[in-house]
From TrEMBL:
InterPro entries per the UniProt record, alphabetical: Endoribo_LPSP/chorism_mut-like, RutC-like_sf
Species assigned in the record: Jiella mangrovi
Name used for this protein in its record: RidA family protein
Domain spans labelled Endoribonuclease L-PSP/chorismate mutase-like: 6-146
Pfam families in the cross-refs: YjgF_endoribonc (PF14588)
PANTHER family for this protein: ENDORIBONUCLEASE L-PSP_CHORISMATE MUTASE-LIKE DOMAIN-CONTAINING PROTEIN, ENDORIBONUCLEASE-RELATED
Superkingdom of the organism of origin: Bacteria
Amino acid sequence: MADTIEQRLSAAGVTLPEAAAPAANYIATITYGSILQTSGQLPMENGALAVTGKLGTDVDVETGQRAAKLCAINVLAQAKSALGGDLSKIGRLLKLTIFVSSDPAFTDQHKVANGASDFMVEILGDAGRHARSAVGVQALPMNAAVEVEATFEIA
């Protein structure tokens, strides 16, 4: 395995985008002591929303996992921006909360959430093992299929 977070991203073929500006009256990240909290990130790719609709009707689990991974990529972009461009300041990923826009009968939110969780462990190594909530919701902003927020410990 590569030595640094940046090397792991490169090995995974991932280039972090520029951190997106907030879309409303909030800030993208907040730091309190050694805790960094991100606002929810949508599955944006190349400046556009990549996955829309509800899991269980419009979106299958595999596509939902891809959406969750894209959200996680955007979470890391926000963390990088908040940490002055230095991802090595991440001590540990404490928790991910994954919101999944779901049909009422859909109950595989945890499988969708694995798209974000697996990516974070791949990129952060043991420091990426985290607590998690996977929550089914009726709708998300802009009809996004998934939204992810994260809490990090700053080293």
